[in-house]
Design a protein that fits this description.
By secondary structure, the protein is an alpha+beta fold. The chain has one domain (2-386): Chorismate synthase AroC (Chorismate synthase, AroC fold), CATH 3.60.150.10. The chain has 11 helices and 17 strands. It has helices spanning 29-40, 48-51, 110-116, 123-129, 134-150, 176-184, 193-208, 238-247, 268-271, 342-365, 370-386, and strands at 2-6, 13-19, 56-60, 62-63, 66-67, 72-77, 154-162, 165-166, 215-222, 252-257, 275-278, 282-285, 293-294, 297-298, 303-309, 320-322, 329-331. Strand 1 and strand 2 (13-19) form a beta hairpin. The mean pLDDT is 97. The structure holds ligand EPS. The site of ligand EPS has 15 residues, from loops. It is an enzyme of class 4 (lyase). NADP(+) binds at residues 39, 45.
């Protein structure tokens, strides 16, 4: 299973092609659109989200609401394109001056990208490095989620910190659905209402000061059978794959699994999860410090991974920089942008994690059709309860 995305932030559209997905999976544009809408929510977004109302068009691979096994093409139109048609035109004669960028933003792909690809106009870099691209990945992740749903696997994210304001409470011992629905109702995807409110104030303050905020989100994946991924070779380790997927989201600077960095501070007796056995239910762990992954494999406990996003590099009160062409010391270019996109990144985190789980599931169980895959997963789950 693989996918490619294409498209510029202010180009006509974003496109994704998924290849290797099983046939007969129920899939509708409505289901994908719900995920796209979730990504667009979140307090702290800028003017662009008022313009876009992301809607997917399924252009191939699906017929009569079911996948056919052939490549699936997804397309999301950029509504903002009408305002950029001359600037972003692929034809010779495009307007190359009105929106030209030569003053790179510290922390952005602008400068290094423009040197690497030798582009005098850094717009040619930011158009693709923009987190607008994540809309495509959320659409792809929605397809993966549709497959996981068939196996009863749920992927969900919550924000645990923004701008240094943290929800330090452990995961509340309530049913997942309850936790998820409370998170879904928070404008910053935060479970704790008081923390949510403090974060809202913090975002308002940052906006007033022309600044931006980063934060941390947590992805929880439930009912993953033990044994996805493998210890036998580096690129098959599921923690490596999930971490790589999360790190590939724009702005992410750190990822941890379970206790993560903290596990380095404590003795083994406090870190490792003791093993239990229940007849007819199989092996389990008494705690989940490992975040559901040991030896590069899922161990049957919920997978819990966190990712840290840096503050967005486009500051309304810009930092110092050097002009690409004149080498003059100036302040960075100011573009319309967001103050905080951590809640949106959290939804993107769900999508990329869902993809990696779906991919690992398909590697273990194979199957050209949904029925084959489901049957094999069902049998394996019986084995896990009896082993
Ligand atoms: C982004 C800058 C802003 C964001 C954009 C990511 O876009 P614009 O320059 O058009 O105002 O809104 O995010 C999206 C468009 C999106 O769909 O998430 C950037 O520079 O990364």
């Amino acid at each position: 299973m693989r996918f490619l995305t294409a498209g510029e932030s202010h180009g006509p559209m974003l496109t994704a092609i998924i290849e290797g997905f099983p046939a007969n999976l129920p899939l509708t544009a409505d289901f994908i659109n719900q995920e796209l809408a979730r990504r667009q929510m979140g307090y702290g977004r800028g003017g662009r989200m008022q313009i876009e109302q992301d809607q997917v068009e399924i252009l191939s691979g699906v017929r009569n609401g079911l996948t056919m096994g052939s490549p699936i093409t997804l397309q999301i139109k950029n509504r903002d394109w009408v305002n950029w048609a001359e600037v972003m035109s692929p034809a010779p004669g495009a307007d190359m001056t009105t929106k030209k960028i030569t003053r790179p933003r510290p922390g952005h792909a602008d400068l290094t990208g423009s040197i690497k690809y030798d582009q005098g106009d850094m717009r040619n870099i930011l158009e693709r490095s923009s987190a607008r691209e994540t809309a495509s990945r959320v659409a792809v992740g929605a397809v993966a989620k549709a497959l996981l749903k068939e196996m009863d696997i749920m992927v969900f994210g919550r924000v645990v910190a923004i701008g240094g304001i943290k929800d330090t409470n452990p995961l509340p011992g309530i049913p997942w659905e309850e936790l998820f629905s409370q998170v879904e109702n928070s404008p910053v995807r935060c479970f704790d209402e008081q923390v949510s409110e403090n974060i809202l104030r913090m975002i308002d303050q940052a906006k007033k000061e022309g600044d931006t905020l980063g934060g941390v989100f947590e992805i929880i994946i439930t009912k993953v059978p033990a044994g996805l991924g493998s210890h036998v070779h580096w690129e098959r380790k599921i923690d490596g794959r999930l971490a790589g997927a999360l790190m590939s989201i724009q702005g992410i600077k750190g990822v941890e699994v379970g206790l993560g960095i903290q596990s380095a501070d404590q003795p083994g007796s406090k870190v490792h999860d003791e093993i239990g056995y229940e007849e007819n239910n199989g092996f389990f762990r008494y705690s989940n410090h490992a975040g559901g992954i040991e030896g590069g494999m899922s161990n049957g406990e919920p997978i819990v991974i966190r990712a840290a996003m840096k503050p967005i590099p486009t500051l309304m009160k810009p930092l110092n920089t050097v002009d690409r062409a004149t080498k003059e010391k100036l302040t960075a270019q100011v573009e319309r942008s967001d103050v905080c996109a951590v809640p949106a990144a959290c939804v993107v985190g769900e999508a990329v994690a869902a993809w990696e789980i779906a991919r690992s599931l398909q590697e273990k169980f194979g199957g050209d059709t949904l029925e084959e895959m489901k049957e094999r997963v069902k049998k394996y789950r019986i084995y896990l309860r009896q082993v």
